[in-house]
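Subject: ZIP family metal transporter

B.,
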Amino acid sequence: MQGVRSLPAWRVLTGTAIAALGLLLLLRDGALLLADLPPLAHMALIGGLWAAAATAAGTLPILFAQNFFQRSYDAALGLGGGIMLAATSFSLVLPALSASRNAGAGAIGASLTVGGGILIGMALVMLLGHLVHSERILPAAGQRRTPAAMKRAWLFVAAVAIHNLPEGVAIGVGYGGVDVAKAHTLATGIAIQDIPEGLVVALALRSVGYGRVFSALLGAVSGLIEPVGAVAGALLIDASLTLLPWGLAGAAGAMLYVICHDVVPEAQRHGHCNTAAGSLVVGFIVMMVLDTALA
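Prediction pasted inline below.
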């Protein structure tokens, strides 16, 4: 079998120069776009970047640790699920009910509005989920690098990247509302949850044989959708405050679906149910304290 010939140096240099020029133009256009964003969208962008940075930070152990135990994966997933659950309850559903009542709705009307928004958010994530088949595709620890295992790992990366979108939107909707302190708490909680999420993405790739740096890099990249979603959510609410209850409830529905459909089943798939459940309760308490005692 003939070896693959390397490209001529001039082609490599030309391609690198074109890529660098394209990156500079993209950064320039991005800077111009950011300059025109409303103040709350700027804050949402910072919150989304903070969450993306937390995702990247979660991948760092993959660069240094030699081995990971499956129980550690499941505990990390459970902790993240508990944080997301508390954030959904205290930072999204309750503010959505309050926003709906402030807009003039009665108790029943506010409840129906929030319930409808939750269903819409769930339906949107289900629609996105059709792009990848994300159920139970995280490889087990130590799995060999077979084509099937590699496919499952890449599907998991895609699923996490897609599911990061509603988290980013939730951050943006929070900043687009009226309580910036609540938005800060929500962004902090999602960022905490993103740390184990970044780790499990890197572990999924590492477990099928990819290198440490590549696995960590892809784990970090999976969180970059969150700043985009944060800006989009803030701009949506900035366009019309009447959308605030629907936006908060929609983000809550999206996160609830991700928790029930992906995080909890995946955390318990390998039999460490008590570890996963206990970690979920701890995560819920941590986020509850952040949202009720420190906000």
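Residues 38-292 form one domain.

T.
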